[in-house]
Amino acid sequence: MKFQKFIPWLVIAAAFLFPFFDKNAYHIDVLVTAGIFILLALGLQVIVGYAGILNLGFAAFFAFGAYTYAIVNIHFHVPFWGGVAVSAIATAVFGMLLAFPALRLSGDYLAIVTLGAGEITRIVLNNLDQVTGGPNGLLGIDHPRLPMVNYDFSVHSQPYYFLILIFILAVIFFLRRLETSRLGRAWRALREDELAASAMGINLAWAKLTAFGIGGFIAGIAGCIFAAKQGTISPDSFDFTVSVMVLAMVVLGGIGSIYGAVLGALVLTILPECLRDFTSYRMLIFGVAMVVMMLFRPSGIWSSVRFRAQPLRANK
Amino acid sequence: MSILDIFLQQLINGLTIGMIYALIALGYTMVYGIAQLINFAHGEVFMVGAYLGLLFYTIFNQTALASWIIAPTFLATMIATALLGYLIERCAYRPLRNAPRLAPLIAAIGISFLLQNAVMLIAGPTDKSFPSILTIQKYTFSHVTVTNLQILITVVSIGLMTGLHFFVKHTKIGKAMRALADDRQAASLMGIDVNFVIAVAFIIGSALAGAGGLMFGAYYNTINFHDGYLAGMKAFTAAVLGGIGNIPGAMIGGVLLGVLEGLAAGYISSQWKNVFAFLILILILLFRPTGLFGARVVKKV
Amino acid sequence: MKTAPIWFFVCALVLSACGSSSDSNSKIKIGCAAPLTGDQAQIGIDMCNGVELALLQANDFAQQAAVSGVAPLQFEISRQDDQHNPAQAVNVAKKFVSDPAVLAVVGHFNSSCTKPSSAVYNSAGLTQITPASTNPELSRQGFSTFFRTAATDEVQGPKGAIFAVKKLGIKKIFVIDDKTTYGKGLADEFEKKARELGAEILGHEGITQGDKDFTPLLTKIKPLEPELIYYGGIYPEGSLLLRQTRALDMKAGFMGGDGIATLTFSELATQAIAEGTYATMVGGDMHQVPAAASFIRDYESKYGTLGQWSAYGYDSANVFVETIRKAATKDRAAVLKTIREIPKFQGITGDIVFDEKGDNQNQFIGIFQFQSGKLHYVGPAD
Fold first, then answer.
1. Which residues of chain B does C206 touch, with a Cβ-Cβ cutoff of 8 Å?
2. Does residue C371 sit in the same domain as residue C242?
3. What is the tens place of the pLDDT at every residue in B144-183?
4. Structural domain spans, chain B
5. Taking CB atoms and an 8 Å limit, are A26 and C15 in contact across chains?
6. Would you call B240 an interface residue with chain A, using a CB distance cutoff of 8 Å?
7. Quick one: C52 and C96 in the same domain?
8. C231 with C371, same domain?
9. C48 & C87 share domain
C-alpha cells in the first residue's frame, strides 16, 4: 500500500529522465506533440468531463491561443514568457464569450454552436489576410528563449519537452485542487443534473462560464507553446479533425479523469506515429483501433467511475 | 437578366442542394430522436452511397436494365447503404448502448475514419467522374433556368420524405419509434423491442443518405472519398436548425440552409458562405434554443 | 478502476514496442514527405511514386554498373504522410533527421508544411528539395539546405497573365482562388500582373476547398460577362467550376496554373467541356524530351495514370541520385556540398539550375491547352 504512494513520483521522475536515455530527436518531438495534446485534452476535460458540456469546436480555442501569441510576438515583440500569459488570458476571455450562448442552450444544441464557432474561427483565420496572413499564416514567430543564460530553444526537441512537462504538471496540480474545490463540485453537480444543481443554489451561468474560461486558459497555453515551437502557424493546423481528436482523447482516456486525458492524448498521438510504416493504410487502421478501443473500454482507459460511485459527502 | 431573375435562379440553385441536405439530415435526426446519438459516421454513409451509386449505375448500364436505369440504381444503392447502416449499428453502436453517452460518438468518429480510408484505398484517392444519369434538358422561363435533373431531385426527395412521414405516423414501427423517442424505458416496458426499432431507424436513415449520395453525385458529376465530411456537417447543422429529433424540422432545416447558403454565396461572398451558414444557425438557436421546430423542453422535477 | 493500471500498462507496452523498430541496412534512404491520406492523398501519392520510380531506376542502373566495377549505390524511398498538417510535417522532419540512413528529402508538398519543417532540416544539415511548394517566402529564410524545383507563385502567376493579356488579348478577367497558400498565391500574382498590363479585373473571390456548388458565385459573375476566368487552385474544384460555368451557358475562357494541368481535369470536366482550357506549367513540352517519353511509359505501366506532380517528384529525386553518386559518400554534409557544385541537372521537365537561395533559376513556364482530351503544348508564356 505504501508503495502506491510513490508511483506518481516515480512516473514524474521517469518523465524527466526520459530524454537522457532516449536521445532520438524524433521520439522526443512526438512526445512534445503529445504534450501539446495532453494540455488540450486537459483543457477540454474541464468542459466536457467536469462540466459535462459537449464541445465540438475546441480547435478554435487552440487556434486563438496560437494566433494571439503570434500576433503579440510579431507586432509587439512580446517574448514567449509574456506571450504565454497573454495567450492564456485572451483565450480564457474568448472561451467565456463563446459560452454566452451556452447559458441559454443545453446539451447537443450547444455542441453544434461550438462546432459552428470552431468552423467560423478557422474560416476567419483563413480569410482575414491582413491580420492572420490568410492561408499563408504567420511566420517568423520567436522561439522561447531563456533570458539569464541567453539560450534559444530554436528547433531542438529537448527544451520543449521539459517546458511542456512543467506546464503539464502545473496544470495537473491546479486541476487536482480544482476538482475538490467548491467550483469543481458545482461542475460535477451541473454535469449530473442541471436542474437539481440549480435547485441547490448553484449559479449555473457562472459554472458554465468558468468551465469555458478555464478550458480556454489551458488551451491558450497549449496554443502559445505550439506557435512558439513551430515558428510559423497557418489555419491548416486547426481544422475540425483537431477538435474531434482532442474530444476522442478525452473520451477514450476516461471522461472526468485527469490521468485519462493524459493517457488518451498519449495513445492517440503516438499510435498514428507507430502506424507510419503503413503509409496510406495508416488512418484506416487508426479508425479500426479507435472503434475497438471504445468497444473494449466503453468508459475510457482510465475511467473515473470512482468519482461517481463515491458519495458526495466523502469529498468534504 | 433582371435582378428578380437572378434572385429566382439563386433560389432554385439553393433549393436543389437543400433537398439533398434535407435527405441526409433526416438520418441524423431520426437516429438522434430515437437513440440520442449524434451519428458522426452518417456523412460517410452518404459518401459511400455516392460511390455505390456509381458502381451500380456502371453495372446496370451493361444489362437489359439500361433503358430505365434510374429506378434500379436508386433501389440497389439504398438497399446497400441500408445494409451498411445496419452493420455499423450492430457492430459499433449496439454494444455501447449502455456505455457513457459520449462513447458511441467516438466509435462513430472511428467508423468515419474507417469508411473514408476504406473508400480511398478501394476506389483510389482521385475524384471519380459521375456520369449524367439522364440527358440534361433545360427549361427556361424568362431567363430562369430549371433542369430536368433539378426537378427529378426535388421530386424524389419530396417523395422519400413524404413516405417517411407516413411511415412514422401511420405504421406500427413508426409508432414504436415515436414511443421510443418519448421515453425509452417506458417503451421497452411496453414490450417494444428497442434494438429492433433503433436498427430500423439506422436502416431507413442510411437508405435516405444513400439516395442523397446518388443524387449528389449525379448533380455535381464528380465524387470524392472526403465528400461526406462537408455534406455531413451541413446536414447535421440543418437537423439542429430544424430542431434535432424532429422529422419535418430536418426537412425544412435542410432546404432553408441550402437556400440561405446559396443566397449568401451569390449576394455577399462565396468565401464567407460557411460563416454565414453557422452564424444564422447560432442566431436562430439564441432565439429558439431548441431549433425552429424542436420541442420546447420544460423540465419538471 | 482496478483494471485501469493494467490497461495503462498494456498501452505503454504497445507504444514502447513501436519506438524501437529501426532496421539497419546499407541502403541510402531518400525521404518523401507529402499528404498520403486525407483529401490531398492523390497528389502526395503521385509525387512519391515519381520519387520511387527514380530511385528504382537508379538501383537497376547501379546493378548494371556493378558489373563494370563501379561501387553500386542502392537507394530506398521512405514515404511519410504529413496529412498537410504542419505539426505532423515537423514530426516527419524530425523522423528523417534522426534516421542517419536518410541522406536527402523530397518534400513537402504544401508550403504551410514546408515552412516549419525546413527549419528542422536546416538545423540538421539535411538537404531538402520541394517539388511543389511555391510560396516565395520559403527561399528567403536563409536556409542553406533548402532547394526547390517548383517555380514560385511570383513567376508562374505573372507569366500566365502575360500570356492571357498580351497573346490572347483578353480585357475582362474574373479571378477565383481556393483560399489555399498555393491557389491564393498564384491568383494574387496573376491579378497583379494582369492589372499592370491593363486588363480589367472584374472581381476576385475565394471558394472553399472541398465544396461542390459554385453555381451561386457563377450566377453572380455571369452578368459581368468576363472573357476569361482565371482559377488559382487544383483540379477537383477547377473541373467543377468549369463544368458549372458551361452549365450556365457562360462563354468565358478558362485558365489555371499547374494545379489543373492534368488529364484528370479533363476527365472530370469531360473532354468536350475542358476543350480549349489553358494551363501554365513549369517546363516545356515533355514529349519532346526523349527521357520523358520513357518516364511516362515506365510510370504508367507501374502506377497507372501519370499524376501531375509525378514528374516533378521524379526530377527532384534524380537530382539527389546524381548528387549522391558524385559525392560517393553516405554523408549529409557531402550531399549539401555537392549539390551546390553541380551547375546543372538535366530533368524531364527542363534543366534545373539552383541559385544561391535554392530556387530553380530555370523557371521556364510553358503554356498548355486541353485539346481533344490531351494536354497540348502551345509554347512559352512570353
1. 269-271
2. yes
3. 889 999 999 999 999 999 999 899 999 999 999 999 888 8
4. 3-287
5. no
6. yes
7. yes
8. yes
9. yes
Please check whether residues C241 and C373 belong to one and the same domain. Answer: yes
Q: Which residues of A touch B237 (CB under 8 A)?
A: 112, 115-116
Instruction: Give me the CATH number covering residue C225.
Output: 3.40.50.2300
Pair C129, C108: CB distance under 8 Å: no
Nearest by CB to residue B270, choosing from C207, C210, C264, is: C207
Residues of B in contact with A251 (CB under 8 A): 100, 102-103, 105-106
Residue C217 is assigned to a structural domain of this protein: yes
User: pTM for this structure?
Assistant: 0.91
Q: Is residue C14 part of a domain?
A: no
Closest C-alpha to A302, from C9, B106, C16, C1: C1
Per-residue tens of pLDDT for chain A, all 316 residues: 567 778 888 889 999 999 998 888 899 999 999 999 999 999 999 999 999 889 999 999 999 999 999 999 999 999 999 999 999 999 999 999 988 877 778 777 888 889 999 999 999 999 998 899 888 889 889 999 988 888 888 888 899 999 999 999 999 999 999 988 999 999 988 888 888 888 888 888 899 999 999 999 999 999 999 999 999 999 989 989 999 999 999 999 998 899 999 999 999 999 988 888 887 888 899 999 999 989 988 888 887 554 443 333 333 2
How many residue contacts between A and C have a Cβ separation below 8 Å?
Answer: 122
Query: Can you give the residue range of the structural domain that contains C320?
Result: 26-151+288-363
Q: In Å, how far is B130's CA from the nearest CA of chain C? A: 8
Task: Give yes or no for a contact between B197 and B80, defined as CB atoms under 8 angstroms apart.
Answer: no
Domain assignment of residue C171, yes or no = yes
| Phi, psi (rounded to 5 degrees) for B246 | -110, 120
Q: Would you give the distance in Å from CA A16 to the centre of its chain? A: 21
Report the C-alpha gap between C155 and C220 in whole angstroms.
30
Q: Is A311 left (phi over 0), alpha (psi -120 to 50) or beta?
A: beta
Classify domain B3-287 at the CATH topology level: ABC transporter involved in vitamin B12 uptake, BtuC (1.10.3470)
| Residue C67 to residue C138: CA distance in whole angstroms | 43
Q: Where are the domains of chain A?
A: 24-240
Beta-carbon separation of A120 and B278 below 8 A = yes
Partners of chain A (3+ Cβ pairs below 8 A): B, C
ipTM of the complex: 0.89
> Can you name the residues that pair with A139 across neighbouring β-strands?
A232
